[in-house]
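From the methods appendix. Each design record in this collection lists the tokenized structure first, followed by the designed amino acid sequence. Records were kept in a plain field format so they could be parsed without special tools. The example shown here is representative of the layout used throughout.

RECORD:
FOLD TOKENS (533 positions):
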């Protein structure tokens, strides 16, 4: 039997299984074709018609609470591809990928990638030579095999996998494992009665209305904008196109999802010296009038705050009389007055006709220079309706998103967390948030990730569900962003817990980002979070 080797296409990063067309090949009427590969020293094959393609090991996004066999999710030309480790499926020792590692993409109900040690070849075999798989029981359960091919030349014994059953049984077993409650979540005797009673002691201060603010720092001073003025917050891009004859505070123009956006430095606007660029720089996209948006370059975004009206004072008369401070509309008192935040008005900071004129002039200038800045300055209402707005946060190197409507506020982690005994490890304690005592969940521990040392970028994302507040500690809050529906795909089904929590994935191909979108209702419902709340 002649075997055709697979030769990798180094330019494309992918390989396509060739078919043996030699004279020695089996008659087409009787032959069956298999892609053959190795896993932990054993040789396996899958039916060629199940194989969509074979690729090199891609970058993957790790999924929390996933079964150990799931390496993560990868972007395959705009499709979200679950990538599964064959070694883990077979109970073999894990191994780091190397140059020979390949992912065999199987064409099931949805594509799924199987990580194998090495792809050997594609073979054509007479169907009569495929025998029962019981003899391979010592290596892999025979119910996961369609059969075995003996004495296949230099290959020896080739075990033919029933790939559909292998995936189905693995994930079905994981989804249904463990003790469950009536709603399918894992049951825990957490002893959270103490925590629940502690959270019922919050004072009723509903008579004092709240406003929601986004706070940030510029040159060490803290400012805030009303959240309704902030459309999104993004990382400062590396490329900003300069605008000639612009004011000193105008950094330049950026293309943000087909929108031409002027970027203004708040340091420059306030007459402060420019700082050095760093990874914490953010651009807040703010609305300054009817259909006009401006990007404000900030040193660092701190929190999303809910502040009682009683904690907000008018600007002192002496400052209000200064026309250079007209953009400061109020002063917010926090931490018993020890922390003062200046509340800005985006409308007062900018002259709307001047902004519109500057955009038109900049577009004309760039068009004459053939600078590739695309897109209109504004979006239509229909385009905006096709988007959702998310708060994006990080855990380790992965990004997660939650709909901004579910987020009550984002605050710093306090130094004086009150620990509660006899609770799950993921419950870090409780904190007092303006008279409300809320439980805090360490999201790393909740997702089974290794702990990390506390640092100043950590934040608490506060959710409210059915009147109950719960805070989730995350590594950092990256941005607030709008995502078009065409980039949002259903998440591949993994375990039962993940199917409940991670329903969708934002696959931002051009930015090479994949954001796992959490269902906050399911996130808050899962024990021990529900019990704690």
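DESIGN:
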């Amino acid at each position: 039997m002649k075997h055709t080797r697979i030769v990798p296409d180094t330019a494309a990063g992918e390989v396509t299984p060739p078919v043996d067309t030699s004279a020695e090949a089996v008659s087409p009427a009787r032959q069956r074709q298999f892609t053959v590969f190795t896993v932990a020293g054993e040789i396996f094959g899958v039916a060629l018609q199940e194989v969509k393609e074979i690729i090199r090991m891609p970058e993957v996004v790790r999924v929390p609470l996933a079964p150990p066999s799931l390496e993560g999710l990868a972007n395959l030309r705009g499709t979200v591809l679950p990538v599964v480790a064959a070694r883990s499926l077979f109970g073999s020792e894990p191994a780091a990928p190397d140059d020979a590692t390949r992912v065999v993409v199987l064409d099931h109900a949805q594509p799924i990638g199987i990580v194998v040690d090495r792809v050997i070849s594609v073979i054509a075999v007479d169907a009569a030579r495929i025998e029962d798989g019981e003899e391979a029981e010592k290596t892999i359960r025979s119910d996961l095999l369609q059969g075995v091919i003996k004495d296949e030349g230099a290959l020896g014994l080739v075990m033919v996998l029933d790939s559909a059953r292998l995936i189905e049984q693995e994930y079905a077993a994981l989804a249904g494992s463990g003790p469950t409650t009536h709603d399918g979540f894992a049951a825990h005797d957490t002893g959270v009665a103490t925590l629940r009673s502690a959270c019922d002691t919050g004072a009723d201060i509903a008579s004092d209305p709240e406003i929601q603010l986004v706070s940030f720092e510029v040159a060490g001073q803290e400012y805030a904008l009303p959240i309704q003025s902030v459309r999104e917050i993004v990382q400062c891009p590396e490329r900003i196109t300069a605008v000639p004859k612009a004011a000193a505070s105008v950094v330049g123009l950026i293309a943000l999802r087909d929108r031409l956006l002027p970027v203004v430095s708040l340091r420059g606007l306030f007459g402060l010296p420019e700082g050095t660029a760093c990874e914490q720089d953010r651009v807040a996209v703010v609305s300054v009038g009817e259909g006009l948006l401006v990007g404000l370059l900030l040193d660092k975004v701190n929190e999303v705050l809910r502040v009682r009206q009683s904690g907000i004072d008018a600007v002192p008369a002496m400052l209000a009389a200064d026309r250079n401070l007209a953009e400061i509309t109020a002063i917010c008192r926090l931490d018993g007055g020890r922390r003062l935040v200046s509340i800005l008005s985006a409308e007062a900071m900018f002259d709307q006709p001047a902004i519109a004129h500057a955009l038109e002039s900049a577009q004309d200038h760039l068009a004459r220079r053939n600078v590739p800045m695309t897109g209109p300055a504004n979006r239509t209402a229909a385009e905006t309706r096709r988007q959702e707005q998310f708060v994006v946060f990080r855990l380790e190197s992965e990004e997660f998103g939650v709909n901004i409507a579910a987020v009550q506020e984002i605050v710093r982690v306090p130094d004086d967390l009150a620990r509660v005994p006899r609770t799950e490890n993921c419950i870090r304690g409780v904190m007092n948030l303006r008279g409300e005592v809320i439980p805090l969940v360490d999201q790393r521990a909740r997702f089974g990730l290794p702990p990390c040392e506390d640092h100043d970028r950590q934040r608490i994302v506060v959710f409210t569900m059915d009147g109950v507040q719960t805070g989730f500690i995350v590594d950092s809050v990256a941005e607030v962003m709008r995502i078009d529906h065409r980039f949002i795909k259903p998440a591949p089904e993994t375990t039962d817990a993940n199917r409940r929590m991670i329903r969708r994935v934002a696959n931002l191909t051009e930015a090479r980002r994949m954001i796992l979108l959490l269902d906050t209702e399911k996130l808050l419902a899962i024990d021990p979070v529900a019990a704690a709340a």
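APPENDIX NOTE: Residues 231 and 465 are 24 Å apart (CA to CA).
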